[in-house]
Amino acid sequence: MTPPPGGDPGLRVYRWDLDKTYLLTDFDTLRGLVRSAVEPAWAKRAVPGATALMRELGREGPGWRPRVHILSGSPTQMRARLEEKLRMDGVRWDHFVLKDNVGNLRRGRLRAVKGQFGYKLPELVAGRVGLGAGVRESLFGDDAEIDAVVYSVYADAIAGRIGSVELSRVLEAGGAYADDIVASLAALRRVSVADAVERIFIRLDKGRPVSEFDALGTRVVPVRTWYAAALVMVSVGEMWPTSLATVLAGNAWSAPSALGELEDVLGRGAADPEGLRRHLGALPAGAEEVLARQWEYRPPSAPHPVDYLRVLKGFRRRA
Questions:
Q1: Domain-located, residue 1
Q2: Looking at the 3D structure of the chain, how many domains does it have?
Q3: CA 258, CA 82: separation in Å to the nearest integer?
Q4: What is the pTM assigned to this prediction?
Q5: Pick from 26, 112, 122: which is nearest to 71 by CA?
Q6: Helix axes 243-251, 226-235, angle to 10 degrees
Q7: Which domain range does residue 87 map to?
Q8: 106, 125 in Cβ contact below 8 A?
């Protein structure tokens, strides 16, 4: 097995959320919360296509060393069942962080129990320590909360686009406690400055309009399905073309539905049409006609500066 076509050899990091990104978790009702906490691993259901995508991204080859890092707001007490679920699905991971809600309650950190921004951003920065500047990343989340914002702030912080003062303000606005802010800034000083985050995929679980993410730039790619993310990854040489059929099967979709996803990512400029034309054999029937049209590819970019305090306030209000 060789590295994906066009992919740079070496280490890649894929950071995943779990709830509503990998798992079909119902946190919107009390019944859903209780069921999620007590149900066995075999009863937990994965988002269609998520299992196949995570497995395919984790495939190694000569000179190609992908690493899967999972960061979830689920409590640490669920670790055994969540790890069992991932093993049942055949998913390999390298790093798995869950939230210590019992510890938060013991310390009286009540807003940390529910809050995600003040928890995830410090963990993301700490998880970058020790990785070289050449290590690239792609991140996967959902629109149920504020994954797009926290991932974007993380990407701009390690790239040096926002400094310690702004990061402190955003962390405070996001609900982080003072000691977490101090730890985040200390970790950031140990991070090799690099524009390392290539893409941020956000699954539209809540069906939010794509336009809500415009302020965060083309680096953020909202998708309705993980097959759409796979199309983007293959188009830029980040994943094997043969993986497309596997992820499509995981979505249990027909060819017409797959073509709809192809048109969507091409129409928004998220996928490179030239990259996909090189792999027509891996695409569903009818893809050649779709790709024959004129499509404009917009490489991932991050607008600067971003008023993250305003953006965070807007996302939290809508969430």
A1: no
A2: 1
A3: 30
A4: 0.92
A5: 122
A6: 170
A7: 10-318
A8: no
